[in-house]
Amino acid sequence: MAKVVLIRCESYDRDEVKKSVDRGLALLGGISSFVRAGETILLKPNLLAGEAPGKCVTTHPMVFEAVAESLIHAGVTLSYGDSPALGTTAKVAQKAGIAETAVRLNVSLADFRNGRDVFFDKGLQNRKFTIANAILDTDGVISLPKFKTHGLEKFTGAIKNQFGCIPGVLKGEFHVRLPDAEAFAKMLVDLNAFVNPRLYIMDAIYGMEGNGPRGGCPRKMNLLLFSTDPVALDATACRLVDLNPEYVPTVTYGMEARAGTFLEQEIQLLGDDFSQFVVKDFDIDRTPLKPYKPNGFTGYLNKRLVPKPYIVTEKCVKCGICVNMCPAQPKALGFKADDTSGPPVYAYDHCIRCFCCQEICPESAIQLKTPLLRKIIDSF
Predict the structure, then answer these.
(1) Which residues of 130-148 are buried (b: 16+ CB within 10 A; e: fewer)?
(2) Measured between alpha carbons, how far is 115 from 171 in angstroms, rounded to an integer?
(3) DSSP-assigned beta bridge partners for residue 203
(4) Residue 31 dihedral angles phi and psi, to the nearest 5°
(5) Is 374 found in the same domain as 250?
(6) What Rg do the C-alpha atoms of the chain give, in angstroms?
(7) How many CB atoms sit inside 10 A of residue 94's CB?
(8) What CATH number has the domain bearing residue 361?
(9) How far is C-alpha 133 from the chain's CA centre?
């Protein structure tokens, strides 16, 4: 039976976070259940983009610090890192407050810029990946995901956190090859199975609701979650915000690939009472997934069902990051040649609905619009 530990933690106060982390680890057998003295261990936080900790875009440095201290005390050689969607690991970690903590604790920054090709014969959809050297050169990984909404997959948590194990621009290639949320989720499940973190500790002291994973709003949830089962952990997180786990493709395909379980009767909840953390008015898409199929009549219909990104003109600062990040060829958005004073303009016929633009916009100026036909169908 899968175990998921829920520990109340009401602030990022150093002592409170440390006590909460220690309590959560104890309920799973202690840190010695996951590492041995002398091993090299990598901490994998969520470092999506360079934002201050209060924006809840990245794993909070106090959670990173508490887990790092436990691992150091266990006698391991510790490193950390992630491959951000935008910017270098060092700069993003500095902005997120993690780099300063790492320097103070003598935790080295691992190589997420370079990688090597690997063949994963257990992959159900993807068997070849280019994986960051940081992952391949360590004995084990501890994953520190952040509780956030996500435009493509609805929710980003334990499973999706390992997407950062693919170096830099190579991540964009997967969005081009796998624009459909279900196909992309299958890749994420295979990738997570290859990386195979020994433990997942999710930062949900404050989560992100709304226009995540970068442009949403912080939401206090007072919670840290622990598990060795990423599917059970993500499914439990979904239930906390009244989201059916079966509507989240990383969860459903995670169970299909035997990476874990989302069935309530197969998950043992430990620690504090689940009911005290439920947030039913959490702003997240609770509708069933509508896969994006771009071709033929199915494609014609799906373009009228699947949400599409749009730019809120008054929020746009015309930085061009969305244009640079768009993986579609030809690009699905760009500046008008005869009107450089305005925001970028979408060519929706080229849009693959990967939502990379929405994910990375630093001003939350790109949001997702649900088509009218979809709203009518959902109302019934």
Answers:
(1) bbbbbbeebebbbbbbbbb
(2) 12
(3) 146, 224
(4) -65, -25
(5) no
(6) 20
(7) 16
(8) 3.30.70.20
(9) 20
In this structure, the answer to whether residues 273 and 303 fall within a common structural domain is no
Q: By C-alpha distance, which of 222, 241, 195 is closest to 6?
A: 222
Rounded Cα gap, residues 169 and 99, in angstroms: 22
> Judging by beta carbons within 10 Å of its beta carbon (0-12, 13-18, 19+), is residue 83 exposed, middle or buried?
buried
Strand 333-334 versus strand 345-346 pairing type = antiparallel
- Residue-number span of the structural domain to which 351 is assigned: 296-379
What's the rounded Cα separation, in Å, for the pair 104 and 107? 8
Question: How far is CA 154 from each of CA 48, 99, 135, 280, 326, rounded to the nearest angstrom?
Answer: 16, 29, 26, 16, 20
Q: Provide the H-helix boundaries in 206-346.
A: 230-240, 249-256, 296-302, 321-325
138 located within any domain: yes
**Integer Cα distance of 138 and 172 in angstroms:** 25
Assess contact for 155 and 122: CB atoms under 8 A. Answer: no
Number of domain units in the chain: 2
Residue carrying structure tokens 């290859």: 194
* Token pair belonging to 358: 């929405």
Buried b (16+ CB within 10 A) or exposed e, 242-256: ebebebbbbbbbbbe
Q: How many CB atoms lie within 10 A of CB 70?
A: 21
Residue 342: alpha-carbon gap to chain centroid: 31
Provide the residue type at 53 as one letter: P
Q: Considering only CA atoms, which of 317, 370, 304, 380 is closest in space to residue 344? A: 317
DSSP 107: P
Closest CA to 31 of 229, 230, 198, 194: 198
Sign of CA dihedral 58, 30, 35, 269: negative
The predicted-structure confidence for 135-181, as pLDDT tens digits, reads as follows: 999 999 999 999 999 999 999 999 999 999 999 878 888 888 887 89
110 and 232 share a domain?
yes
pLDDT digits 0-9 by tens, 75-117: 999 999 999 998 999 999 999 999 999 999 999 999 999 999 9
Q: What is the pLDDT of residues 248-292, one digit of tens each?
A: 999 999 999 888 999 999 999 999 999 999 999 999 999 988 666
Q: Is there a contact between 121 and 127 (Cβ–Cβ < 8 Å)?
A: yes
